[in-house]
């Protein structure tokens, strides 16, 4: 969508002020509730040395940190849109760069967590030597590097192709302002599909190996493998929700051409389901399902009683 049409779409949300207010309140309550939960879990992580030296918990904390940052950035964009604050494209691009990098962090970190579970269950004797703190931090650095590549490419393209006056145009902030040409949009969609395919193959590989290990194991090993298999299923669901958040804008643009009223309802549903809820699955998967972490969390929630 071009700049004018995207701005009109966002203004369209103000046609029913009461409905917009209700949706805004619901969105704010959900976002800040999950930000609070993530911050509480981050506090629990940094308070225990055992968690800070475990690769699984380090990756979990990284997911919490990026989810918090993304929810804060999204909340800023939502409030700017709600109050119809137009920002010059040049300043908006800075916000889009941060959001673009953080959005890609989640699926890449999910993949790293799946590989860590695969090593822990299928190669238990080598797990301690492979999943060290140093290698985990190096993996996080690689995740940030890979997440930045696409955004840097889009930044270079928009800088080279867009005229200088384009960066002074006031607009609502959304990543599409960095996609100035049709071939760039096509490249954006194609690379997203490739990312999803590669990550899905890795998760399916890990799930198959863990499932075979669960069938061959016995006793505690079987229970651990079964738990790892369920964890990978949760990760698959989280991955689908995260990637759906990237596909939804293209589906909504088609719906908008046929029914603006349906567009508004679907846009709000996708925002809650794919943008907010997908970021809430990390605490559910690793926070409340992990007995050690859950006990430590309850300890700090009860003021160390």
Structural write-up:
- The chain is mainly alpha-helical.
- It is built from eleven helices and two strands.
- Strands 1-2 form a two-stranded antiparallel sheet.
- Helix 4 packs parallel to helix 7.
- It is globular, with a radius of gyration of 21 Å.
- The N and C termini lie far apart (55 Å).
- The N terminus is likely disordered.
Strands across the major sheet, in which order? 1-2
**Helix percent band:** over 70%
- Strand runs, count: 2
Return the average pLDDT rounded to an integer: 83
Could you name the key traits of this structure?
two-stranded antiparallel sheet; 305 residues; mainly alpha; 84% helix
Care to give the gist of this entry?
This protein has 305 residues and is mostly helical.
Lay out the secondary structure:
Elements: H1 3-11, H2 17-47, H3 49-52, H4 55-82, E1 87-88, H5 89-122, H6 124-130, H7 133-161, E2 170-171, H8 182-216, H9 220-258, H10 260-288, H11 291-301
Helix pairs in contact: 2-4, 2-10, 2-11, 4-5, 4-7, 4-10, 5-6, 5-7, 5-8, 5-9, 8-9, 9-10
